[in-house]
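Cross-check.
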Amino acid sequence: MDKAPPKPALPLLALLALASALGVAVAIALAGAAMLLAAPAYAEERGLFLERPDGLVGAKLVLAERESYESGLTSVVEHYVNPYDEPLAGVYLFRPPQNALVERFTLSLGTADAQPALLTLREGGVLVERLRAIPPGETVRVQLEYRSRSARRVLAKYSSLF
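Predicted model, tokenized:
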């Protein structure tokens, strides 16, 4: 009996290499698309964003006040409105300045009393607070205070002792 010569494995290996390369390329393209879609929500890294079926969109900012004091304290008050005809959950993002300490952060929905919030620190130093569904046309009031702790300010404070 004649034995058939073994089939070369080179075409099979080439096909596997091509499939692997194609899989990596598709994964990179999908990761890039996901980052582009998330970019509007994290571009400013600050503000109230509403969760719509097609992604995060910014809530309408109707008032923004900011006061900075010589002590390094900065006070921020912002009012946002849900401009859509449906209740939407929200995500508030805030990136404090480097070396800053958040001393106070409260949220209030409509005319309700301000409630302390539980901020979550995410990668990159972004503070995140999730909000329950915000009714259409309802106002969300954000109040936060943070203190900058720069090395220059600390040195100036202690140099006055000598």
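The chain has a mean pLDDT of 80. Residues 9-43 form one domain. Passed to J.P. for a second look.
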